[in-house]
Design goal:
The structure holds two protein chains of two kinds. Chain A has 20 helices and 20 strands. Chain A is of the alpha+beta class. Chain A has four domains: 70 residues, [2Fe-2S]-binding domain (DNA polymerase, domain 1), CATH 1.10.150; 54 residues, 2-Layer Sandwich (Uridine Diphospho-n-acetylenolpyruvylglucosamine Reductase, domain 2), CATH 3.30.43.10; 113 residues, Uridine Diphospho-n-acetylenolpyruvylglucosamine Reductase, domain 3, CATH 3.30.465.10; 113 residues, CO dehydrogenase flavoprotein, C-terminal domain (Enolase-like, domain 1, 2-Layer Sandwich), CATH 3.30.390.50. In chain A, a hairpin with a 2-residue loop joins strand 12 and strand 13. The N and C termini of chain A lie far apart (55 Å). Chain B is α+β, with helices and mostly antiparallel strands. Among the domains of chain B are: 249 residues, Aldehyde oxidase/xanthine dehydrogenase, molybdopterin binding domain (Aldehyde Oxidoreductase, domain 4), CATH 3.30.365.10; 138 residues, 2-Layer Sandwich (Aldehyde Oxidoreductase, domain 4). Chain B has 19 helices and 29 strands. In chain B, strands 3-5-1-12-9-10-11-20 form an eight-stranded mixed beta sheet, sandwiched between helices. A five-stranded mixed beta sheet of chain B has the order 7-15-14-13-8, with helices on both faces. Chain B is globular and about 90 Å long. The termini of chain B are far apart. In chain B, 63% of the residues are buried. The chains are: A alpha+beta, B alpha+beta. At the A-B interface, helix 2, helix 3, helix 4, helix 5 and helix 19 of A face helix 1, helix 3, strand 27, strand 28 and helix 17 of B. Bound molecules: flavin-adenine dinucleotide (FAD) and FE2/S2 (inorganic) cluster (2 copies). One FE2/S2 (inorganic) cluster (FES) sits at the interface of chains A and B.
């Protein structure tokens, strides 16, 4: 049984034994390592000032992924490389191409956000060549800057490739891979510290038996919800079981009629498969949190959290997705419809967990999804809507309509669905049926939106869907419009 | 952008060189040290503050035993433990460090705790058992107006006869514009480190724009003389006004805990506490009654500005004064009255924020002009131009200052042309006629912003310069670095004065022990004033060196010239350091102070009349928006800005201020919404709920130009112009572009009802309201039309 967290910091292997597994990587860096280049701006994953990059072995390459260190538990570093802003300069002190581009473009003013931007750009530098402006702004959506207005940072992202090809990380990649291999483990990592226990199994069967044995344990996946309990609520998480090292759960595969996503697959991993079949779902995921959040967060975590405003949930419902739940050696399948039983309550039994998600691939249905939020990028939805429509000629055979932000759980709009079934799919019937939504839902007013706005938008989105399915030429989306502007 | 030849004789980093920020390399490599990065001495304790959960209540019992007995806790303090004054008000003494019996906003500090770790301190603070007797809170502007609760007396500026002109005007409109506040959201939260010294003295590292204020406040709470407290700040991770008066509370709490424990204390607010506990931009309601002619020329106007100041005065007096001074923005208001109410509410005390009341004042008049244009069926730009201040006549402000440097006519014309405003406006109308869901809008708005502190005595600055025998220079001044680049600007000025490469000039942390009795880094004038003070010090040194050369080499002073790292003395050339060494050997002082006071300004604070501003900064912006009329979402595809930064010391830094200021202003007017619940608790206290612009909100086509012919007509250091605040107000164009797009839904026949921030929700509701008005055929019955 492994009892040591082993990871590479920069290029040295660190071994931590006596450490609180829920200490955040940010706290670890700033207090234990005294690397203060990584900043805290919010401690909740929203500002990116704490961005660091994880090097993860992937065959004979290292995958570099930007993550928010403020909500990442130090125990989850096991088997990975941790790169911080202090690691980027060359041995001779010269700046990394990303850093140099930021200086050249006047990309920093107060400089407090800068290390985070540098790390996000560093990951981009290693993953992609010549990203489009749109892609640059996606990649930087999780980094807030209050000083510059971003223009010079975008400029730096364009220009960083001009400062030579590759960096010292490229040069030592194979050595790092060797190092990373040397710290992979074949058994469960178990940490005990101050009354807290942390398990990180590597096989599904061990995971299943641990969950069964510790029905009160909290499951930890990306930690993008759970991390906040520690940093914001100051909660003590006594027993934690980490899913992220279970290989069998990291898979994403699409066969002829379904996409199957393992519970430990991150949004980043799942993106292509989902976006290929359902571009609008892809669009939702593109706007889901930020790169940093998607690099650790999982679809299963989004479902299990059971938030009324979980972005993926209406889409999954409209698509009739199903969950494979496992308890010990047995599994069962439930539809997402039946999964949410109340405000943040689910049909999962003690000892049970989500093993994978199955999304049917419909070829003859029209699907659309919409996320409405105050800020376009990196915001929580006020209303999310998803529609899946089957037509017989121009008559509605059936339609599945699901909304988030309209009720204590994400929910189907059954009355509206019924009102449309069998009707001609045109403006008049949709207009009429949209009023059924007022009977389906009685949304609340809160800081994100008023009840009146939610109801209005819910109706309008249905009208928009109708318009888009019947008048393809009409411009209806700001994003698409914006796309032209980006040229 | 460095427009001089980089020949052998041109120094590196002199005035006009667009060099990177002095800390840029340290920023990108994580080496720049912020207050929380300073290595702390062994035994340092960490602090947390216990805050009120009620907006208005009497504390009936305060049980801190559970706090004191929590793991790691070393000290707990309340109002009773303050040895000096329990107060942090920057102007009036009306705001406590620790609430004494009564709490007046949700988030008010009640007690503080020091523990061995920050986590222990924060957990302990949550364990207090506080019982409250709730009192009815007054939370909104309307409620405070009705209850006549003010933090300061109301004030009025009047000129001419507004009432008679209103009555006589061919057209008249009345209405109210509401606009929300704004959180600073500096990326680095409030933080202070207090280290006890011998004799009971206190050393404070604080993230503050105003070290002198922190120094005085800490002295007052500890009952020490000012000379017993030293405050230092090398840089802030953003300030924007939020660290002008607000830093004092946190430094004071750290100092109190350090004083009682005898150990260093670090107090670093987490984001939620920071947003809950610190003041914001003032929310305003502006009610207007305006009379105008068929061309849209304003004949008379009455403006009433009501602002939510919160539970104490803080800087609300000067903020609201400045709002009044900018109620005209760029327009001549011949018959005018401007009344300002400073309302007391049970919310956090609002404070300075980039623009300092100016943005709210300007929003009012820009809205009025837009309303006039829509009423007359004209392009708002035409009405704006019609009302602009004249160059030689119609050029006196309501507060009786003659505008001597107006360049707006030309500037607006240039921008109108370079942005292709007219053709794009026509194209937009065409697009809107055939696009049922997406609608576009465009607006051009100008900015005229007064530079100087309105309180005349604050317009002074000091510098301290040492030259060492190797020719290197140590530079210190009163300005604080918050990202605006003041350290770089001032170092460039000193480099230019002494003709030394900039790498010879050491920039040092702002420290109350080096330059005393300073003003805040605020009012955009930090470079103007500190740059001039540093130049003064450099010239003193230069004079002394010239004297040495004259004496030693028997030349005329005119035969001594400084050029790149050298001095030419007659027909001899020697390295700068050689002359410095000669001076040292001759026992000539190589250290000098410099001082600057802004000339010409005077101001009668009672009558609100005079010349409060040395000069004005100008600019204009054209914003184009596209909105979704089914959801209220929007984005800005293109923004064009033409801004006058005078002849900037460093054009790259000036450009950064323009771009960043604009985007920050756009945030204020679009997505940044502060939301309080019915009990007055702020619900948007973190970036998850409070949405400042993200990268994708920056217009994809963002054309920002500094006015090439820019020259400050006043004798400001190197003829540059202040550029910190003015660009924020260029963003007023974004709000009016949205309004224009909404108006298209009613075929431009009705004027939309929109308030700020124009969140997607407000935009959609404005669209719906307009549609409803249209449907009800209320066109002829516009309720706001009086005649
Ligand atoms: C900055 C930021 C932005 C965000 N933006 C969005 C957004 O745009 N849209 C949105 O919907 N959400 C958003 N979230 C919330 C969060 O990222 C998502 O809910 C995410 O999907 C959670 O996944 P995770 O793997 O991180 O879950 P974790 O935090 O690891 O776990 C979440 C919960 O699910 C449980 N759990 C995890 N995996 C399983 C499993 N396999 N079986 C049973 N229970 C399990 C955990 O015990 C925990 O209770 C955001 C969060 C942050 C911090
Ligand atoms: S500190 Fe803001 S995302 Fe981590
Ligand atoms: S440079 Fe200040 S927040 Fe980005």
């Amino acid at each position: 049984m492994a009892q040591t967290v082993r990871f590479i910091l920069g290029d040295e292997i660190r071994e931590l034994t006596d450490i609180d597994p829920t200490m955040t990587v940010l706290t670890y860096l700033r207090t234990v390592e005294r690397r203060t280049g990584t900043k805290e701006g919010c401690a909740e994953g929203d500002c990116g000032a704490c961005t660091v990059v994880l090097g993860i072995p992937d065959g004979d390459r290292v995958r570099y992924r930007a993550v928010d260190s403020c909500i990442l538990f130090v125990a989850t570093l096991d088997g990975k490389q941790l790169i911080t802003v202090e690691d980027l300069r060359d041995r001779d002190g010269s700046l990394h191409p990303v850093q140099q581009a930021m200086v050249d473009c006047h990309g920093s003013q107060c400089g407090f956000c800068t290390p985070g931007f540098v790390m996000s750009l560093f990951a981009l530098y290693h993953c992609e060549l010549e990203p489009s402006d749109r892609r640059i702004s996606d990649v930087l959506a999780g980094n807030l800057c209050r000083c510059t207005g971003y223009r010079p940072i975008i400029e730096a992202a364009r220009r960083m490739y001009a400062n030579g090809n590759g960096d010292r990380f490229t040069a030592v990649e194979s050595a790092v891979i060797e190092q990373l291999r040397s710290i992979q483990r074949a058994d469960t990592l178990t940490l005990m510290h101050g009354g807290r226990t942390y398990y990180a199994p590597v096989s599904l069967s061990t995971l299943a038996s641990l969950v069964e044995r510790h029905p009160d344990a909290r499951l930890l996946s990306g930690g993008t919800d759970l991390g906040l309990l520690v940093t914001k609520q100051h909660e003590d998480l006594d027993t934690l079981i980490y899913l992220g090292d279970v290989r069998e759960l990291q898979t994403v595969c699409a066969d002829g009629d379904q996409i199957e996503i393992g519970a430990a697959a991150t949004f980043t991993d799942a993106f292509d498969a989902v976006a290929d079949h359902y571009p609008d779902f892809g669009e939702l995921l593109r706007r889901f949190g930020s790169v940093q959040v998607r690099n650790t967060g999982t679809l299963a975590g989004n479902i299990a959290t059971a938030s009324p405003i979980g972005d993926s949930l209406p889409a999954l419902m409209a698509l009739d997705a199903r969950l494979v739940l496992r308890r010990g050696g047995t599994t069962r399948e439930v539809g997402l419809d039946e999964f949410f039983v109340g405000y943040r309550r689910t049909a999962m039994q003690p000892g049970e967990f989500i093993e994978r998600i199955r999304i049917p691939i419909h070829t003859r249905r029209r699907f659309a999804a919409y996320k409405i939020s105050k800020r376009f990028d990196q915001d929580i939805a006020s209303v999310c809507a998803a529609y899946s429509l089957a037509l017989d000629g121009s008559t509605v055979r059936d339609i599945r309509i699901a909304y988030g932000g309209m009720a204590p759980t994400p929910r189907r709009a059954r009355l509206c669905e019924q009102a449309l079934a069998g009707c001609p799919w045109n403006e008049a019937t949709v207009e009429q049926a949209s009023h059924a939504l007022d009977r389906d839902f009685a949304p609340i007013t809160d800081l994100r939106a008023s009840s009146a706005y939610r109801s209005l938008v819910a109706r309008n989105l249905l009208r928009k869907f109708q318009l888009e399915t019947t008048h393809g030429a009409v411009e209806t989306r700001i994003v698409v419009y914006a796309e032209h502007c980006h040229g | 952008m460095d427009n001089r030849h980089n020949d052998r004789l041109t120094i590196e980093g002199g005035v006009r060189a667009a060099i990177p920020h002095d800390s840029a390399r340290k920023h990108v490599s994580g080496e720049a040290t912020y207050t929380d990065d300073i290595p702390v001495p062994d035994g340092t304790l960490y602090a947390a503050i216990g805050i009120s959960t009620h907006a208005h209540a009497r504390i009936t019992s305060l049980d801190l035993v559970p706090v004191a007995s929590a793991p790691g806790v070393v000290a707990v303090l309340t109002a009773a433990d303050v040895p000096g004054h329990n107060d942090v008000g920057p102007i009036l003494q009306d705001e406590t460090i620790f609430a004494d019996g009564v709490v007046e906003y949700a988030g008010q500090s009640i007690f503080a705790v020091a523990a061995r770790t920050i986590e222990q301190a924060r957990r302990a603070a949550r364990r207090a058992i506080v019982e409250y007797e709730r009192r009815e809170p007054v939370l909104t502007i309307d409620a405070a107006l009705a209850a006549e609760r003010f933090v300061l007396p109301s004030r009025t500026i009047r000129r001419g006869n507004p009432q008679a002109s209103l009555a006589a005007a061919p057209h008249r409109l009345r209405g109210t514009l509401e606009m929300g506040g704004q959180d600073h959201f500096y990326l680095e939260g409030q933080v202070a480190l207090a280290i006890p010294q011998e004799d009971g003295d206190m050393m404070i590292y604080s993230s503050t724009q105003h070290p002198t204020d922190v120094q005085r406040q800490v002295g007052r709470v500890l009952g020490l003389r000012v000379n017993a407290v030293t405050v230092e700040v090398r840089r802030m991770g953003g300030g924007f006004g939020g660290k002008e008066s607000q830093a004092a509370l946190f430094a004071s709490v750290a100092a109190l805990l350090a004083n009682v424990t005898g150990r260093p204390v670090s107090l670093c607010l987490d984001r939620d506490d920071d947003m809950i506990m610190t003041g914001k931009r003032h929310e305003f309601h502006i009610t207007y009654d305006v009379g105008f002619d068929d061309d849209g020329l304003i004949r008379g106007i009455e403006l009433v500005m009501a602002s939510r100041c919160g539970m104490s005065a803080d800087l609300s007096g000067p903020v609201n004064d400045r709002a009044m001074f900018h109620a005209d923005n760029a327009y001549y208001l011949e018959n005018v009255s401007i009344t300002s109410h400073r309302l007391k509410t049970n919310t956090v005390s609002n404070t300075a924020f980039r623009g300092f009341g100016g943005p709210q004042g300007m929003m009012g008049i820009e809205w009025v002009i837009d309303e006039i244009a829509r009423h007359l069926g004209k392009d708002p730009l035409e009405v704006r131009k019609r009302n602009l201040y004249g160059d030689t006549e119609r050029n006196v402000t309501p507060y009786e200052m003659t505008i001597e440097d107006n360049i707006l006519h030309q500037l607006i014309e240039d921008l109108e042309r370079s942005s292709d405003y007219q053709a794009r406006r026509a194209a937009i109308h065409e697009f809107n006629a055939t696009s049922p869901v997406l609608k576009r809008g465009i607006a051009l708005t100008p900015v005229k912003f007064g530079i100087s502190f309105t309180a005349t005595h604050l317009n002074q600055a000091g510098a301290l310069l040492h030259v060492f025998t190797d020719g290197s220079v140590h530079l210190n001044h009163a300005g604080t670095e918050m990202g605006q680049g003041v350290m770089t600007n001032v170092a460039q000025i000193v480099a230019e004065e002494l003709q030394l490469d900039i790498d010879r000039i050491k920039i040092t942390a702002t420290n109350t022990g080096k330059v005393p009795n300073t003003s805040a880094s605020a009012a955009s004038a930090t470079t103007d004033m500190n740059g001039a003070a540093a130049a003064d010090a450099a010239r003193t040194i230069k004079r002394r060196l010239i004297d040495v050369a004259v004496e030693r080499f028997r030349v005329e002073p005119s035969q001594v010239a400084f050029r790149r790292n050298e001095v030419v003395i007659g027909d001899r050339v020697m390295p700068f350091e050689e002359l410095v060494s000669l001076a040292h050997a001759a026992r000539v002082q190589l250290s000098a102070t410099g001082f600057y006071r802004t000339p010409k300004i005077h101001y009668d604070a009672e009558r609100l009349r005079g010349r409060p501003f040395y000069y004005f900064a100008y600019g204009a912006a054209v914003s184009e928006v596209v909105i979704d009329t089914l959801t209220g979402e929007y984005m800005f595809p293109r923004v064009d800005i033409l801004h006058d930064a005078g002849n900037p010391i460093n054009a790259a830094i000036a450009l950064g201020q323009v771009e960043g200021g604009f985007i920050q202003g756009m945030g204020w007017l679009t997505t940044e919404e502060l939301y309080w619940d019915e009990e007055g608790r702020l619900m948007t206290h973190a970036p998850s709920t409070y949405k400042i612009p993200a990268c994708g909100d920056t217009p994809p086509d963002f054309r920002v130009t500094l006015l090439e012919s820019g020259q400050n007509r006043e004798d400001v250091v190197y003829r540059s112009k202040a550029v910190g605040e003015p660009p924020l107000m260029l963003a007023i164009s974004t709000f009016h572009a949205i309004k224009d797009a909404v108006a298209s839904v009613g075929d431009y026949r009705l004027s939309p009802r929109l308030s700020a921030p124009a969140t997607p929700e407000r935009v959609l509701l404005a669209v719906e309201e307009l549609r409803a008005r249209l449907a009800a055929r209320l066109v002829q019955l516009q309720p706001i039309e009086v005649h």
